[in-house]
Amino acid sequence: MKTLKNGEFFGQTNKTQHFDGLVITDTEYTHPYVDWHYHENAYFTFLLQGNMTEGNKKEIYDCSAGTLLYHHWEDPHYNIKPDIFTRGFHIEIPKEWFENLNITQNNLEGSFHLRNPELKILMYKIFKESKINDNNSETSIQQLLLHIFSHLSNPKIVVEKKPIWVKQIDELLHENFNEKLNLTALSQTLNIHPIHLSRDFYKYFHCNLGDYIRKLKINRALSIIANNEKSLTEVAIDCGFSDQSHFIRCFKENIGITPLKYRKIME
């Protein structure tokens, strides 16, 4: 089984950057099939454009633009890519980085498909910082990555058994975020009292219901913008925003720049 060393990925890596031990790469995937392999270091894969399938010993992920995966070191997997342009953003993390920052790794074994829109927005911000690449980018990237690991390394989040409605509402919101949703209708669908839903939503999602839906909309918008096939007005409509000004305001609040500026750094 092939082992990929520091900074190595299958495909055409167009840019490699180093930030205090972290290795960040922007890679076009060119292989229709990549056989079982593993990487020397832990790393995140964030699919910016296109589609691919990834399989490991436990699961198979159908990945589209906006998919975020985490792999711990030496976790075997394979990849299948359709005949379309596919681009991935990677953050590779050596063991020394975890040790120097005293980050626990007990809950990080194996591979994870990270669906939380907050974590994806943090990854988009890291991508943005890698493109800005000024004197403050290294500090910003470290801070954003630590924020992600503060969630992944929290044993309470991993171990605590969540009620059934948590998974149900997460699936509902991912499927219907661009529609008009309200607390009463969601409560009836889930057969849970609105007060209970409102009170406990923050406990499991770490934000209120409205903010979570906005983050899902922004994540969808980011993946559409990357393909550069629709106008920003069309993106706003497709993602369920009431108008373009609302879309731009919400986008800037979450990402820190306007959709137009983000589209330009994707080029």
Automatic annotation (TrEMBL):
Keywords: DNA-binding, Transcription, Transcription regulation
Entries under InterPro entries matching the protein: Homeodomain-like_sf, HTH-like, HTH_AraC, HTH_AraC-typ_CS, Tscrpt_reg_AraC-type_HTH
Domain of life: Bacteria
Sections of the chain in a coiled coil: none
Alphabetized Gene3D superfamilies for the sequence: Homeodomain-like (1.10.10.60)
GO molecular function, one term: DNA-binding transcription factor activity
HTH araC/xylS-type domain segment(s): 167-265
Name the UniProt record assigns to this protein: AraC family transcriptional regulator
